Amino acid sequence: HSGKSFAFSTQAIGGVAIDGTGTGLPERSLEAALNADAVLLGAVGNPKFDGRATSERPEAAILALRQALGGFANLRPAVCYSALSKRTPFQPERVKGANVLIIRELLGGLYFGEPRGFEASGNTAFNTLIYSRHEVERVAKVAFERARERKKKLASIDKANVLETSRLWRAVVTDVAKQYPDVDVEHVYIDTAAMRLAISPTSFDVMLCDNLFGDILSDQAASIAGSLGLLPSPTTGGKVDLYEPVHGSAPDIAGKGIANP
User: pTM, whole model, 2 decimals?
Assistant: First the structure.
């Protein structure tokens, strides 16, 4: 492109790496990623690993890679192209023109909070949901910048009526909004956002979410495009940008040559 050549290297991660090396993110793969200009990640996962501990599953390799690369803002667009409007679960007139960009905070929240685990009895499990002002502020700025480039409309998604972390989230987003007076901001509870995404997807443009809510809502937003298999996802803000599909792997169709590339 523009007279420049590209050099590619292929490294193992996830299930295939576990099978080959015993670990989901081999040192060689991590080193190659850190020394690259960009990383294109294929989906990981296989049902045969479902019974294993979280740290021994292919998905753990993705979390470790994200953490190492340092990308904290995950952008997940879902667009209804007019030619596909009749191939979604929506009535065509309800989804036509829908174009949503979900910005998911990627390095904090429930997926990374400590402590986590099982109590000795095995009858109780626990995870920690924690956010700092800094973590919310930096991803909020990414969302506001994107909103400014689009329709100048941002919905911040939280559960501030129940969760202390969401109250901090809302307070920080409100503070950051003062730097973007040209962007129209609304705060929406996660349950209300899920309902609106299902009945009125065109009511959203940019949606700012924490790690858990962004993971769930972006999968729901796949209905706008017609299939989870059509959604791309760049992650920015760290040492190296990471590009991947939103979906997981599809071992049921592996080797058949029918996956949409």
Answer: 0.86
Q: What is the pLDDT of residues 120-174, one digit of tens each?
A: 998 999 999 999 999 999 999 999 999 999 999 999 999 999 999 999 999 999 9
Catalytic pick from 159, 180, 205, 210? 159
Answer yes or no: 215 catalytic: yes
Residue found by looking up tokens 């340092």 in the block: 70
Cα dist. 4→1, 58, 239 in Å? 5, 34, 22
User: Among this protein's residues, is 48 annotated catalytic?
Assistant: no
Which residue(s) pair with 155 in the sheet? Answer: 186, 207
In the set 158, 205, 210, 215, the catalytic residue is 215
Choice among 175, 191, 239, 243 that is catalytic: 191
Which phi and psi angles does 116 have, rounded to 5°?
A: -150, 155
Among the residue ranges 106-115, 136-145, 156-165, 240-249, the one predicted with the least confidence is 240-249
241 catalytic? Reply is no
pLDDT band of residue 15 (cuts 50, 70, 90) is confident
Residues 43/245, Cβ–Cβ less than 8 Å = yes
